[in-house]
Amino acid sequence: MNPIVREFMKATHPDHCSTAPQDEGVQQPSLELPFEAAAPLLPLPTPGELGIQGIDLRTAVERRRTLRRYSDQPLSMAELSYLLWMTQGVKEITHRPVTLRTVPSAGARHAFETFLLVNAVTGLDAGLYRFAASQHALVHIHTQGDIRQKITHACWDQQQVLHSAVTFIWVAVTERMTWRYVERGYRYLHLDAGHVCQNLYLAAEAVECGVCAIAAYDDDLLNQTLDLDGENLFAIYLASVGRRLVE
């Protein structure tokens, strides 16, 4: 086993983990990162009014495959709302409090924030957004320069990012997971990322879209582009989404 891998597995073994902040009486981190007070929320169609017909699970699983080339037809706001709901939708906020969502997470920690590189969604300007999951809305993030080119370059110039209708970028909020699971929480973050991305793959089948999961990127450059510190907040996984090409 590679020494780095061996050290990671050892350090995240339960016998070697630190005392959890939760057990020391530290207050639970917020369920969602705050937004600037002046940032207007852009409401999305609510889950109850989407009107998107699902497909049966077996069909979605069997038809699903990774697609890197897309048509130039945009997604609708309803379709984007559906994909966000299916990947990080908040069904309930309990008294504990935790969020119960449409995707599993270790201990219901749900330690991700969803950033969106929007290229072609009807009714939305192109640019970078963040999903306010608790309110099922978007917040536009103001950036300098061509954010599409910057994020594509940080992903080793993979062109599916540039030509997608939208690219999902899941950002890990480490404190939200390590508050309970300390070092072992880093294992759970990566497992949870897989849960979220698989939901996106399956949900996309219902709206005639394809997905390409992306784990190949320059960590430092992508985090810098998204104004993340790379430790407390870091990009953990991406996925481009677009309309299927008509063959």
Q: How much helix is in the residues?
A: 25-40%
| Annotated CATH topology | NADH Oxidase
Task: Point out poorly predicted stretches.
Answer: none
The CATH class is identified as Alpha Beta
The run of helices and strands is HEHHEEEEEHHEHHEHE
How is this structure best described in words?
The model has no long low-confidence stretch (mean pLDDT 95). The chain has helices spanning 3-11, 57-63, 77-88, 147-154, 159-163, 174-181, 185-204, 219-225, and strands at residues 41-43, 90-93, 99-101, 112-118, 127-132, 137-141, 166-173, 209-214, 233-243. The protein has one domain (43-242): NADH Oxidase (3-Layer(aba) Sandwich). It is α+β, with helices and mostly antiparallel strands and 247 residues long. It is built from eight helices and nine strands. The chain has a seven-stranded antiparallel beta sheet, with helices on both faces. A two-stranded antiparallel sheet has the order 2-3. The longest helix is centred in the last third of the chain and has 20 residues, at 185-204.
